[in-house]
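Lesson 9: reading folded outputs for more than one chain in a single document. The general rule is that every protein is listed as its sequence immediately followed by its structure tokens, and records are never interleaved. Here is the first one.
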Amino acid sequence: MPVPNPANSEISPQQILATLKPFGIILSDDQCAKVQEYGRLLLKWNRLTSLTTVTDPVEIVGRHFGESMFAASLLPVENGRLVDIGSGAGFPGLALKIFCPQIQLTLVESNKKKCAFLAEVIRTLELPDAEVLPLRFEEIRAERDFANFITARAVGGFPRILRWARTALSRRGHLLLWVGGEDITSITNSKGWIWNPPARIPQSQRRFILVGRYVGESQ
């Protein structure tokens, strides 16, 4: 269970590690420091720009960082080109970048204020090979090999995502979707896609990660 956090206090490295333990995540001292600073920036910007409804530092680490980083246990994303669509406050994209620093990351977000926040996190945390595209993903004419991995969390509009991803992904690329249980059947029945069994997110009963690959509608 997460270590309780006193109101309005900063989360400690020990609390970060304890909160991430159920997700199978172990961070270095530097990674913990990045999570701490990210959390400070998130709460600071959240006062002016709606970034998250979660405002308790411990819950932020579990719900945002833990649920994002958990994806790395399902697929080896560390050496690929990852495109995160509808990035919002940067989850899962930036959280995965902290956990897997070698990722080449593109954050796609159409809200200009959120783009400014994402750019500030990248600058402050000194994250290399990370960029922000201030666009809707549908506006990007992505060709094959645009991404090895595409992620989408709390975005919705899954049919549009699937249509776009099948062109943007590399030949053996994967799509990772954070979904509620009610969405699983409709997504996994999509023509041309093969899916791993849904992976339940730790400490959740109704949230899952789906990992799929487009093989063509003739398959």
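And here is the second record, again sequence then tokens.
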Amino acid sequence: MTAAQGFCVFDTAIGPCGLAWGERGVVGVQLPEGDWEATRVRMRRRFPGAPETPPPASMQSVSLRVAALMSGRPDHLLDVELDMTGVSPFHQRVYSITRAIPPGRTLTYGEVADQLGEPGAARAVGQALGHNPFAPIVPCHRVLAARTGGGGFSAEGGVATKLRMLQIEKAQLGPEPGLFD
């Protein structure tokens, strides 16, 4: 992982999130850890030596867009530069497919594995997403265990947080009607 030049904590509809950046873009995003201080502590642990500082304009824009997404405004965030230094090639492929899932849509771990050309790699996909340092820019919450189940979620609050994020997006399960209509 690349060293972060700085990080900030910002408010969203689901709680305070963190954003760390470096020379080549976003180094990491942190979903809420419960409250502002817990999120700060987590950011300091993830990015030791990075100062908490007001973000540069480009990162301020990213934090505003993430906050808007968490409020229900669809945004693919595909143009946000992610610094994937130190991220394995397999994880990068999983994250690329996951980033292409539009807000309000979902895939299963198996469907992501199929798109990778590696049927049977659903468990490896789940492990890659469990280590996703860029949620929700890499929207791992949009990948489900099955069409009827959320599966795991490593963020604070677990599957309840995942389902809340999907509810905010008015998620649909594949071609079916909306999950939360």
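What the second record shows: The helical segments are 36-46, 57-70, 89-99, 109-116, 122-130, 158-168.
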